[in-house]
Design brief:
heterotrimer; A mainly alpha (307); B mainly alpha (277); C alpha/beta (250); A: mainly alpha; two-stranded antiparallel sheet; 78% helix; 1% strand; C: 250 residues; alpha/beta; Rossmann fold; six-stranded mixed beta sheet; globular
Chain lengths: 307, 277, 250
């Protein structure tokens, strides 16, 4: 976007605003989101800046996170977040994609809305209740199934996150699948292809980007989830031994912030370190969301039909 | 294996995930309702000082209403601008991306911001007001997106007819487009409320405390909330999970009621508005 | 010899009785036009021949449709092979968002008719059959959307030809095209009738007269008249047909 066209657009907006003061009010409301995001970045970054200037890269790659000892190596925390989220996706992707394909392609119209509503209700359940269910049911179940003393593990967190991420994946990929123009489906069927062949060779290739975007958004959701994970993950700041051992406790970034903010005194090193973690989280989810947006938008240009 | 058989097998296999999701949903319902015994109606009106849930329920409602009061108007007006007024595609795209990004910010980060900005910088302290502002940030994207969709579904011919009669654009919108989009807008606000009702991480440091003497008398006092209470009791105090079954149930019911109302409104009005789909 | 024949064909969409007792005979290797005012059931009629109406929920059919003497609504009919033998071209060109080559190769791959070198030959043959080869032979890997509207429609015809059909159904194939492209496709239709049986739905009387050997006139789901195109247009037997042809209603 060239400087000239930005300038032109801003002048255009101002001239229209002079016409109707209402439009100014509306414009301010619309820009509110941008302003908030900017403020968010500003404040989180400035509070976390101290930590980065004190510890620098150690914050990210340091292996020990011990606030009492003044050690702020977030590597085990970052590892925990990633591990738990990937575990969640491993379950949520087949579950979510399978469900959304089934809903859009196989389920008859009449039941479709009912099932979609149930999935929507799943999405509305507060995370603290998921955590509650996790403690009451999942944690003891894991302990008994795997014969370990404590079910507060990465596995418990991943399972909860998976259920929480599924509605996101189903929702976005379902929208994408429904948006595939019916013309293509008809053309394929008229050539004698079965519904499955049409799905495989025509519909899915077209919906690829939207599906990818839904997975990315699901990942973002999993990484950003705080409460449910906190309640069942065990909260020990150590990389599991061996690294793929889901039966070890873990301590994702979100949980750390939630647990330790309460005790951190204002503007202390710990306070700043926690904000540093928040900054890392923010940047990460920002990248994931923007990429997902771009992926969806780019496809809109390629798959479009000439009118 | 013929194509037809292959199709049957694959489609059957695809049905399994969906069934699992449904099972998960009903399993959760079952677990929650198993604790129904710990709840009795009197708890809803008894003060927390005597083991009841009154202040928590009212506190939660206060938080929700305030957040909706902030996010509702701003969100609707923002959406109106984006759909009806925004001049070029680029500006709309940037704002849309900003809205999507705001939606994707982890709730704990919103909580951190709320603490750093509303509580500390603006000096609101741990208060209802700080909670309103923080929660409104989470509601905002939901209201904006839902309102945008509702506005886009109204046929432009309604507005055109009004403009052809000589009204201003804003008048045309308030007279024709907004009323037609009203069900969709209301639905999105309710869904936003449902989303925020159970929110814990965002208000962890900005507005709640474990116990208060009675209800807050001003927005600058802290408040009790169901989700917060449940969370802190289990995690910080170490109460056994079963002891908060009552809170979990009430919270779930509140959220479920809001969500179901939203879905019902949407379905009901979809039938009554013949221009939809 | 009747290639396609409908006997007492009745069709309902939910409670809507769309086709009423249609008895129609389609001659082999000829172009038959199905004409009539909007909403008279023309598209539904030809879609009954390749059972594409099955895709729409709430569709009920009684009567028979014979292709090569076999009733395609009989239990146990292989619908997928039927649709290979009875191909369809739609009103709006709908090439897949793939390359030109992949569009034409789609059908043969699905039905496992050809692969590798043979597939390339099939694609070339089909594109020639649709009078499109010379225009695209150097850019087979370009996306189908780089073609003009008329070219896209010819691509769809090539795509249908690639699975070696016997009958080609065309549902108002030129209504979305400009006059020049329309003329080219009408020429193509006449050529195609030498090897295939072509049934074309049109609401354009002049097109029916230009392009077809036989014409069927459908009105509100009923077959009013059927006969050789010249005879039907010059000397229609039914008063309704005459009114339609002379433009007393549309």
């Amino acid at each position: 976007m060239s400087k000239k066209s930005i300038r032109k657009t801003i002048l255009h907006i101002f001239s229209r605003i002079k016409e109707q003061p209402i439009e100014l009010v509306l414009f301010l409301c619309a820009s509110f989101s941008i302003v908030i995001l900017f403020l968010l970045l500003l404040f989180v970054a400035s509070e976390g800046a101290l930590a980065f200037s004190n510890f620098g890269l150690e914050l990210l790659i340091g292996q020990v996170w011990d606030t009492n000892a003044g050690l702020y190596g977030a590597f085990p925390l970052i590892f925990s977040s990633v591990m738990v989220s990937i575990g969640a996706l491993a379950i949520a992707i087949p579950l979510g994609l399978g469900t959304s394909i089934f809903i859009t392609e196989v389920v008859p119209f009449s039941i479709r809305d009912v099932i979609k509503s149930i999935i929507e209700l799943l999405a509305s359940i507060p995370s603290v209740i998921y955590g509650f269910i996790g403690i009451i049911f999942l944690v003891p179940a894991i302990a008994s199934v795997f014969g370990i003393t404590s079910g507060y593990t990465a596995l418990a967190a991943s399972l909860l996150l998976a259920i929480m991420a599924v509605p996101t994946i189903v929702g976005v990929s379902g929208e994408t699948l429904s948006a595939v123009p019916k013309d293509y489906k008809e053309a394929s069927l008229a050539l004698g292809a079965t519904k499955l062949q049409t799905l495989r060779h025509v519909i899915l290739p077209i919906a690829k980007s939207g599906i990818l975007a839904s997975v990315m958004l699901g990942f973002g959701r999993a990484v950003g989830e705080t409460v449910a994970v906190l309640m069942v993950a065990g909260n020990r700041a150590q990389v599991p031994m061996p690294p793929w051992n889901f039966l070890d406790p873990v301590y994702p970034i979100t949980s750390v912030i939630a647990m330790q903010m309460g005790e951190a005194s204002l503007y202390s090193a710990e306070y700043s370190a926690l904000f540093g973690l928040g900054l890392i989280l923010f940047i990460f989810t920002f990248i994931v969301n923007t990429t997902a947006d771009i992926v969806v938008r780019r496809d809109g240009k390629i798959g479009g039909r000439k009118k | 294996m013929t194509e037809t058989t292959k199709e049957r097998v694959v489609f059957f296999a695809l049905g399994v995930p969906m069934v699992m999701c449904l099972i998960a949903f009903f399993w959760i319902l079952a677990i929650l309702s198993s604790g129904a015994g710990t709840l009795n109606l009197s708890m809803l009106t008894t003060s927390a000082l005597q083991g009841g849930l009154f202040e928590m329920i009212v506190g939660t409602i206060y938080l929700l209403l305030g957040a909706a009061g902030v996010a509702g108007p701003i969100g609707v007006l923002a959406a109106v601008y984006l759909v009806e007024y925004a001049p070029s595609g680029k500006i709309t795209r940037i704002i849309d991306q900003a809205v999507n990004n705001l939606a994707g910010v982890p709730s704990i980060v919103i909580g951190l911001f709320g603490f750093a900005f509303f509580t500390t910088q603006l000096g609101l302290g741990r208060s209802l007001a700080a909670g309103w502002l923080t929660l409104s940030l989470m509601m905002l994207p939901i209201v904006i997106r839902g309102t945008e969709e509702a506005l886009k579904m109204v046929p432009p011919s309604f507005q055109e007819a009004s403009l052809a009669l000589g009204t201003t654009k804003w008048r045309a919108i308030t007279a024709t487009t907004l009323p037609s989009a009203a069900p969709g807008i209301v639905t999105s606000v309710i869904l936003g409320i449902a989303r925020v009702a159970g929110e814990t991480a965002a208000i962890l440091f900005t507005s709640c405390v474990l116990i208060t003497r009675g209800l807050p008398k001003s927005p600058f006092e802290p408040v009790m909330a169901l989700a917060y209470n449940m969370f802190v009791r289990i995690v910080a105090i170490g109460d056994p999970a079963e002891s908060v079954f009552g809170i979990a149930l009430v919270l779930f019911l509140i959220v479920a009621v809001f969500a179901i109302i939203a879905i019902v409104i949407r379905t009901y009005y979809r039938k009554r508005q013949p221009w939809l789909r | 010899m009747a290639k396609v024949e409908t006997k007492n064909l009745n069709l309902w969409f939910k409670d809507n009785h769309v086709l009423k007792d249609v008895n129609l005979t389609i001659k082999e290797n000829a172009v038959t036009a199905v004409m009539g005012p909007s909403g008279c059931g023309k598209s539904t009629l030809i879609r009954a021949m390749n059972r594409m109406n099955d895709v729409i929920s709430g569709c009920r059919v009684t009567g028979e449709v014979y292709v090569d003497g076999k009733n395609v609504y009989e239990d146990g009919t292989n619908v997928y092979d039927l649709r290979r033998r009875v191909g369809m071209v739609f009103q709006r060109p709908n090439p897949f968002p793939k390359s030109i080559f992949e569009n034409v190769a789609f059908g043969p791959k699905i039905h496992k008719i050809a692969n590798g070198k043979k597939l390339e030959e099939v694609v070339e043959k089909s594109l020639r059959g649709a009078a499109l080869w010379d225009e695209v032979k150097d850019r087979l890997n370009d996306t189908a959307f780089s073609l003009s509207g008329g070219q896209q429609q010819r691509l769809c015809i090539a795509r249908a030809l690639a699975v070696e059909p016997e009958v080609i159904l065309m549902d108002e194939p030129c209504s979305a095209l400009d006059p020049a492209s329309t003329a080219r496709i009408e020429m193509l239709i006449r050529e195609l009738s030498e090897k295939y049986t072509v049934i074309i739905v049109t609401h354009n009387l002049q097109q029916a007269a230009r392009v077809s050997d036989f014409t069927a006139f459908l009105y509100v789901g009923e077959l009013i008249e059927y006969g050789e195109t010249e005879k039907l247009f010059e000397d229609p037997k039914s008063e309704l047909t005459e009114k339609y042809i002379t433009g007393k209603f549309g």
